[in-house]
Amino acid sequence: METSEKKSSKEQLARLSAAALKNKTGRGWKEWIQWLDDLGADKKTPREVQAALAEHVDNVWYRQKIALGYREARGLRGVGELESGYEIGVTRTFPIHSSKAWEVLTSEEGLAAWVGDLENGTIGPAESFTTKEGITGTITVLQPGSHFRIAWQPLHWRQSSILQVRVIGSKSKNAGKSVISFHHEKLPGAGDRSAMKQRWEEKLSHLAEIIKGK
């Protein structure tokens, strides 16, 4: 009996089986990959591929899956690429209790370090802001002592992304350590993923300097 490890990669792509795909769209992965090869999809962007599929697949979710699965099959899918875009996560451990880490993160100096200097607006539950750098944001979730969830959008992006900033305490109450985490989802492209990875690593370094000076 053939094991799942030995199955062709075309049996399941983008976390969707060929049988399920054929049941919903009339074609399995093998047929769709051939169709897209004939279309020259390897030279097209995911959005262009999805647009080409629109006449043949009514459901947007399946169009996204086919486009993503094709990129996966042809080795075009990048690191951190998901159906909803790209994502990145960076963390750093600090030698302070989580309550102190949250205090630093939400202090005037700390907010300036990772949010930036505000042009207008405020940082608070359900509040919106614009930074002098041209970033707009809306705080959709603010759980004191735990995390922020922000709709985050630079000037040159067509739509907002999701930024989550968390403080995670050590499992041992006596350890006196905590983690600050930046998780950024729905990034437009691979280049944006690289840029955001560098950005949040730099912000963590800046926060480390603030904590060191306390």
Automatic annotation (TrEMBL):
InterPro entries: START-like_dom_sf. It comes from the Bacteria. SUPFAM superfamilies: Bet v1-like. This is Activator of Hsp90 ATPase 1 family protein. It comes from Dyadobacter fermentans (strain ATCC 700827 / DSM 18053 / CIP 107007 / KCTC 52180 / NS114).
